Amino acid sequence: MPQFDPLKYSFASHRNIVYAKKGMACSTSPIASQVGLDILKSGGNAMDAAIAMATTLPLVEPTGNGLG
Questions:
Q1: How far apart are CA 42 and CA 48, in angstroms?
Q2: Residues 56, 58, 63, 66: is their CA dihedral positive or negative?
Q3: Tens of pLDDT along 28-56?
Q4: What is the pLDDT of residue 14?
Q5: What are the domain boundaries of the chain?
Q6: Cα 46 to Cα 9: distance, rounded to the nearest angstrom
Q7: Given this model, what pLDDT does residue 11 score?
Q8: Residues with Cβ < 8 Å from 26, sequence gap 6 or more?
Q9: With contact defined as beta carbons under 8 Å apart, do 4 and 18 qualify?
């Protein structure tokens, strides 16, 4: 299996990558993903992280989504 090196990403367009060892949070914004990871690290569950990311996304991507 080939090794993945995030510093040598060969495609012109890419997204920022946020890493964690014991959890995962995926969104269209690295800031929202980091908020989700912070919730998981502080003892929250997946639902807490999802709600935190859903409330962060309208702030970091105001034209990409709505509150509903």
A1: 11
A2: positive
A3: 888 999 999 999 999 999 999 999 999 99
A4: 61
A5: 15-68
A6: 29
A7: 65
A8: 33
A9: no
